[in-house]
Each structure stands twice: as structure tokens, then as C-alpha cells.
Amino acid sequence: MPQKRSSSIRESIILKYQEIRDALDEDLRTTLCHLEMEERAAVSALDGFMEKNCSLIQEIEQELDRLALAMDQIQLQPETTTFFSHLDPEDIEDKLLETLTLTDPNRVKLDQAKSEQIQNLTHNLLQLIQCQTPLIKKLLRSYSTEIHLNPDSAHPRLHVSPGGVSCSEAWQDVPDHPTRFDSTLYVLSTQAFSSGRHYFELDVSEKPYWELGVTYPTIPRKGPTELCWLGRGHDSWCLEYFDGEYTAWHGGIPHQLPVLRRYCRIGVLCSFPAGQVVFVEAEKMTPLFSFCVGTFTQSLHLALCPGHDCKGTNTKPILICNASSPTSDL
User: Fold this and answer.
1) CA neighbours within 13 Å on the CB side: how many for 190?
2) Residue 46 Cα to chain centre, angstroms
3) Can you tell me the distance from the alpha carbon of 35 to that of 41, in angstroms, rounded to the nearest whole number?
């Protein structure tokens, strides 16, 4: 049933995207058709003006030839000059200039204001589409949840701040709280979530080693047992980056990811309605790995490990990219 439902949703989304493409393609065709129609009309008008100019030039040349011939044949006597007395040279020049102006190709202009409006509208459409896409980024970030780390859960070598967590070689003098990890470099969130959908973004820039994920509060915290590590037991889900490789862990089973580049931001989505834990690259929302749990039996905490110092190469903290407000439980 879930597979059939997922297939139906997939087909519906593909159809909607095709309809969006078809609508945009049709709008593009209509807009280009109008522009081409105006262009054809302008070219036709230019051709007409050029033809008129050519005819006018020919007529002027023919008239000049006739006048020159008449001047050669007629003796300029007082009684014969009356033939040209009505012709004012300035009037002839003004008439010629007026005709040339009316047939000037530069008088053919496209509707500049409408062209600018079309450009503005297409720019606005582009901005609208860009602000709405990618859709999955807008959707996941609508689930963003403000998160804070619990210093009482942090390993003594971890330095917890409001914005994140880092690791040093020095052990801090902190109380041996029952919730504190004493051998593994982890810290949990103060908040625990038991319903709804929650999305967290973590900045792991320039870090060669880190772990992050979600866990039940029952994860072992004392001693060197492997069950204290994220993803090694059945009560936590983890994504690990080490030595240029990404590995997803749960139940002690590693899932190596075919990813060859280092990402700066990692997103974690836990969805109680779907029973899923999803890891994504947060810049373009590229999916990395998804665990389908089915039903969570306990509340979940965000868990972070900034990793060992690695001889000074891994001193950068994991930063929490908090949202401004908690998510809805819809």
C-alpha cells in the first residue's frame, strides 16, 4: 500500500510539473508571437519608407535633369524668366525636407513602454519562481525548529555555546551528571520531540570529521561500550563524515554513501507521522540518506559530535542554524 500510494503521489507531482512547463512554454510562445508580429510590421513599414525614398530620389533626379536641360535651351530673357518666377528655392527645399522627414526610417519604432513592461513582468515571474523553488527546500524549512544543546549531557571535552559545539583536548571540570556522556564525544538537545515534523540545519564547514543525528533519550551514555555511539544501537540514527566519506548508521549497520564532495550544511528531518529520519545536503536539498522507522516508540533528541581535534585540523565547531520559531505539529 505505501508503495502504491507513493507511486500515485509521484505521478501526480510529475503531471503538475509538466503542466507548469506547458503553461510557461505556451506563455513564451504567445509572447514571442506578439514580438515577432510587431517586428514584421516594423520591417514592412521600413521597406515601404525605403521604397518611397527611392521613388522620391528618382523623381528629384529626373526633375533636376529636366530643369538642367531647360536652362540650357532657354535664353534667360526678361520675358522667359516668368516661367520660373513662381518657384521659390526655399519653398522647394522645405517641401523636400518635409517629404524626407515623413519617409524617415527612424520614425518606425516598437512600443518601447510595452517592451519594458514585458521585460519587467518576465523578471517578476522569474523572481516568483526562484523564491518558490526548490519546493523541497521551502517545504523542509517550513518545519524548522529552534534547538538548544544541553550542557549537562555534553562530554567533558566538549564546549557548548548557544550557537553550537566544539571539541578540545582539555577536559573541563564539570559535574558527573547522570545524563552526561563520559566516553563518547556527544551532546544532546535540551528539547525532546514526540510529534510533528522537525527540521534542523547544521553548519559543518571545514570539518574533516563529524557525526550528527537523532536519538532516543535511552541511549547508553556511560563507559566505552559501542552502544554509546550514534547509530550503533537501535535507539539512534546517524550520519557520519570521516576521511572524505559519508556513512549512515543505524542498528550497527553502516550504509556508505556514494558522495565524493564535502558539504558545508547538513539538514536533518525527523517526521513522526511518516516515521522517518532524513539527511539532506541543505544548500540544494540534495537527499543523502533516509531511514524509514515506521513508528517512533520514544521522543527524539538531536545529537551532535564535533569529532576529535585531529591534530588541530578539526577545531571548527558544529554550528546550529536555528529557525526563528518552532514548527507546527501538523
Assistant:
1) 12
2) 44
3) 10
210-265 pLDDT per residue, tens: 999 999 999 999 998 999 999 999 999 999 999 899 999 999 999 999 988 899 99
Q: CA 199 to CA 293: how far, in whole Å?
A: 17
| Closest by CA position to 259, among listed 276, 250, 267, 247 | 247
Task: Say how far apart CA 25 and CA 47 lie, in whole Å.
Answer: 32
HEC letters along the chain: CHHHHHHHHHHHHHHHHHHHHHHHHHHHHHHHHHHHHHHHHHHHHHHHHHHHHHHHHHHHHHHHHHHHHHHHHCCCCCCCHHHCCCCCHHHHHHHHHHHHHHCCHHHCCCCHHHHHHHHHHHHHHHHHHHHHCCHHHHHHHCCECCCCECHHHCCCCEEEECCEEEECCCCCCCCCCCCCCCCCCCEEECCCECCCEEEEEEECCCCCEEEEEEECCCCCCCCCCHHHCCCCCCCEEEEEEECCEEEEEECCEEEECCCCCCCCEEEEEEECCCCEEEEEECCCCEEEEEEECCCCCCCEEEEEECCCCCCCCCCCCEEECCCCCCCCCC
Taking the CA of residue 184 as centre, how many other CA atoms within 13 Å lie in the half-sphere pointing to its CB? Answer: 24
The model's pLDDT over 92-122, given as tens digits with 9 standing for 90+, comes to 666 666 666 666 666 666 677 877 888 888 8
User: Residue 216 and residue 86: Cα distance in Å, rounded?
Assistant: 109
Q: What angle do CA 93, 98, 103 make, to 5 degrees?
A: 130
